[in-house]
Specification:
Layout: H1 10-15, H2 19-28, H3 40-47, H4 50-58, H5 62-72, H6 80-88, H7 99-118, E1 122-123, E2 130-131, H8 133-139, H9 155-158, H10 164-173, H11 182-194, H12 196-204, H13 208-217, E3 223-225, H14 232-239, E4 244-245, E5 250-252, H15 255-261, E6 279-282, H16 285-309, H17 325-335, H18 339-351, E7 355-357, E8 365-367, H19 369-375, H20 379-392, H21 422-434, E9 440-442, H22 444-454, H23 469-484, E10 487-488, E11 491-492, H24 494-501, H25 504-511, E12 523-525, E13 529-532, H26 538-547, E14 549-552, E15 557-560, H27 563-571, H28 576-586, H29 593-605, E16 610-612, E17 616-619, H30 623-631, E18 640-644, E19 647-650, H31 654-663, E20 669-670, H32 705-723, E21 726-727, H33 745-758, E22 762-767, E23 773-784, E24 787-792, E25 797-802, E26 806-812
């Protein structure tokens, strides 16, 4: 500890640490830095607050937590040997505690105690280990909050307030000598329960039914209900103090008696070693990389398809934010996936900054300008950007479809999907997979068991449901990793290992050779379909997606040409000659005659009818066609009437009129006010420039080395100001600790001037403009105009102080 005498308080224990140890504490518990404590005493006080201790306990692994729980039921302070005995037992349990577990506890306990001591949850030397008071209160047993160890209160705690007469009755029934001193009576009963030989003799006389009652209580909970007239076995136990009353209807098994029955063990199953992540399959690493690369390419193309689907303005934003169930279902149908998978892709594109709301009055989701830049990147770089965004995102798409704490449905892109633990769990799951040999697929249950050991679930932490949130995120991580190409056939891919350890550039370099090369051709067939035997180059894919509809996907994509798809290409400004030339250029097979006829036929009729605003109108040089439209019963909803031989007027708006006539089998074209055909180009809608959503951090961020060094220096300086021995010039006595120095104005001026000339530091009392008094250690640099400019060791910066606000000054003792 660096001192010859043991520390009396946590503050003294922290004060004896070196700077590196203090920095380790602040790194492990960054909440202690908000704001930076003024001195060691303030740091110790903050480290003992309930919120900070709860946060620290929740970040312990299972064995460190079991060690803290054992200290909570041990005497305060507890020698190291006592703590070890609570974890290993006294060896009298008929072999229940295996020798290998006992050896593992002996080996692991120094590390667990070191972790607790480093995080300021435990302080003191090994012969006087003390658990901080707040942690002891949190982990100690009570009827409302049973101890995690399952132990009840001590005999002294359970008998507090019990009448001396009742104590005498218990002593007599247990065969102990009578005493009129309640303290002596409690001590005698405690000594009986902690004496293995005498306790064994007492239990040998117990009825078998009484031993069965003890068996039900020994591992907790230690509380039980009794009737006003208990059964004989319960009465036998109660008369001898093996069950002590808590209330008129509740009794408790005292801690000392339970420890005897447990052979001295605080925990039924100590877990000093983390569970091993088991393998379910050993696969060829090359096959794993190939499968992951194929899935990575599918992930990139799926996000591309999503962007294209929402290109002209996606679904509307709900009033409460997010995507409606109906729109998510439509998106899932368009992507040909299940709704939970569609929610994952939508959330991934949003996390990567490729989708956002447009912010308009009729707010809708749409691609962002960044999506256009993303689409121009090579496929491997697009995947890296998606994987990087997924690793850092705090949004959990697995929650979509569930309910929040108030029973409200959670929607995709909604405001309540952030879970700050998600990035840490994802990285930890992938780190466990990375530790396995290449090509090894882990058992998901063993991964969950390891995560639960590293962060055991405590108390109400399972508010998300019967399964703790971290385990749910871990399961989602394994599933999403397979969807995204992070893993292949359950094992971590080589490009993912590179992404985690060497960075995006290396990952992209490893992935690129495994991705299929985009093709510049298709195979046209006589049944009005085109087969793309692989991924297509982007200009070809865009044009073919406009000219034809996707019929099926897989290793090869099948496109089907229909009158509607050809008209869509003509609406986009293409001519029949352009379409013929495009197909002839990019087809490895001759253009089938039926396809040529289809294009020519649709082109001949395209624009024969013209739609404008009247509300809207139809004009056509062929009066017969207009007559056919008026005679068709399906046009009744459009409410058309002839206003000229070649013109029909409609009450419907131009868009509705266009759709209505197309449903009737015509191929009208929209025209401008000048009579020109309007060309409709897909994909014109973009949101304003939007950055990707910032992850919601889990508590304060871990400080960097520079901040830690500055914080430690500031705490040390503040501690010097509060605790350093200071000498008064007018008396040999030192100023009482905590009191401000008092000197006259003249003495103050002379002392700070002398310190400025010699470059020495002095100790001052200072009262700020708000009347708050403080002590500071300063090194004066300049004294003029009623002000002293000095380096303030407490604040670690240069400051200026009015001399009239300095209550006094004292030189520092050597």
């Amino acid at each position: 500890m660096g001192t010859t005498t043991p520390p009396r308080t946590l503050a003294e224990a922290l004060r004896a640490r070196d700077d590196e140890s203090l920095a380790g504490l602040l790194r492990a518990r960054p909440d202690l830095l908000s704001p930076v404590p003024g001195d060691i005493t303030q740091l110790a006080t903050r480290a003992g607050t309930r919120a900070s201790v709860v946060r620290a306990l929740e970040r312990l692994d299972r064995f460190a937590l079991q060690t803290a729980e054992a200290l909570a039921v041990a005497p305060d302070p507890a020698p190291y040997g006592t703590l070890l005995g609570l974890l290993t037992g006294d060896g009298q349990d008929d072999g229940e505690q295996r020798d290998d577990v006992g050896a593992a506890i002996v080996a692991a306990l120094p590390g667990a105690v070191g972790t607790l001591r480093e995080q300021a949850l435990v302080w003191g030397d090994d012969d006087r280990l003390r658990l901080v008071r707040t942690a002891r209160e949190l982990l100690s047993p009570s009827p409302q909050h049973p101890s995690p160890t399952g132990l009840g209160p001590t005999v002294a705690e359970a008998t507090a307030g019990m009448s001396p007469g009742r104590l005498q009755e218990i002593l007599a029934a247990a065969g102990l000598p009578a005493t009129h001193d309640p303290v002596s009576a409690v001590a005698a009963l405690t000594a009986l329960f902690t004496d293995r030989a005498r306790m064994g003799e007492l239990l040998d006389t117990a009825p078998m039914e009484a031993l069965a009652v003890l068996d039900r209580l020994v591992w907790g909970p230690p509380y039980g209900e009794v009737t006003p007239h208990p059964a004989p076995p319960v009465k036998w136990l109660r008369d001898r103090g093996l069950l002590l009353p808590v209330s008129t209807r509740t009794v408790v098994l005292p801690r000392e008696a339970a420890l005897h029955l447990r052979a001295g063990r605080a925990h039924r199953t100590p877990e000093p070693r983390p569970p091993v992540v088991a393998a379910v399959a050993e696969r060829d690493p090359q096959a794993v990389d190939g499968a992951a690369a194929g899935q990575a390419f599918l992930a990139v193309t799926t996000v591309e398809e999503l962007l294209k689907h929402w290109n002209g303005g996606g679904p509307a934003v709900l009033r409460a934010g997010g995507l409606s169930v109906r729109e998510l279902r439509r998106t899932a149908t368009a992507l040909d996936v299940q709704e939970p998978v569609a929610a994952f892709w939508v959330e991934l594109a949003y996390a990567a900054g490729l989708l956002a709301s447009d912010g308009e009055a009729d707010e809708r989701y749409a691609p962002t300008p960044a999506s256009d830049e993303w689409l121009e990147l090579p496929a491997e770089e697009r995947w890296v950007s998606l994987a990087t965004a997924w690793l850092a995102a705090t949004r959990a798409s697995g929650l979509v479809g569930g309910q929040d704490a108030k029973g409200r449905a959670l929607s995709a892109l909604g405001p309540d999907l952030d879970r700050s633990a998600a990035p840490e769990v994802r990285h930890r799951v992938l780190a466990l997979l990375d530790a396995l040999p290449a090509g090894t697929a882990p058992d998901p249950e063993s991964v969950l068991a390891r995560l639960r050991w590293e962060r055991p679930l405590r108390g109400a932490a399972a508010s998300e449901g019967t399964t703790d949130l971290r385990s749910r995120i871990a399961l989602w991580t394994l599933n999403e990793s397979e969807l995204l190409g992070i893993t292949g056939r359950g094992a971590l891919a080589a490009h993912t290992r590179a992404l985690l350890t060497e960075g995006p550039a290396k990952a992209a370099g490893l992935l690129a050779p495994l991705l299929p090369e985009p093709l510049d051709h298709v195979l046209l067939q006589a049944d009005l379909t085109a087969v793309a035997p692989g991924p297509l180059q982007r200009p070809l894919a865009d044009m073919l997606g406009t000219l034809a509809d996707i019929e099926s996907k897989g290793g090869a994509t099948v496109y089907r040409f229909t009158p509607g798809s050809v008209r869509r290409a003509l609406d986009a400004g293409r001519t029949a000659a352009d379409l013929h030339a495009f197909l002839a250029t990019h087809s490895r097979t001759p253009v089938p005659q039926p396809l040529s006829y289809l294009i020519d036929d649709v082109a001949r009729r395209h624009g024969h009818l013209r739609i404008g605003a009247a509300s809207s109108y139809v004009r056509c040089d062929d009066e017969t066609v207009l007559g056919e439209i008026l005679a068709d019963k399906r046009s009744a909803a459009l409410r058309l009437r002839r206003i000229a031989p070649t013109v029909l007027a409609a009450r419907a708006d131009p868009a509705s009129l266009l759709d209505g006539l197309r449903e009737m089998g015509y191929a009208p074209a929209a025209e401008s006010a000048d009579g020109d055909v309007l060309i409709t180009r897909a994909g014109a809608h973009r949101t304003p420039p939007r950055s990707a959503p910032a992850p919601v951090p889990e508590g304060p961020p871990v400080p960097d080395t520079t901040l830690l060094g500055a914080a430690v220096r500031a705490i040390r300086a503040g501690d010097d100001a509060a605790t350093v021995v200071h000498a008064r010039k007018d008396t040999a006595a030192t100023t009482p600790p905590g009191a401000l120095p008092r000197t006259t104005a003249a003495e103050t001026l002379v002392t700070v001037q002398a310190a400025a000339m010699t470059g020495s530091a002095v100790w001052i009392g200072y009262v700020n403009a708000d009347g708050a008094a403080s002590q500071r250690v300063i090194a004066p640099v300049r004294v003029e105009g009623g002000y002293v400019t000095a380096y303030d060791h407490t604040a670690d910066e240069i400051r200026t102080y009015p001399l009239h606000r300095i209550t006094g000054v004292a030189e520092l003792a050597e």
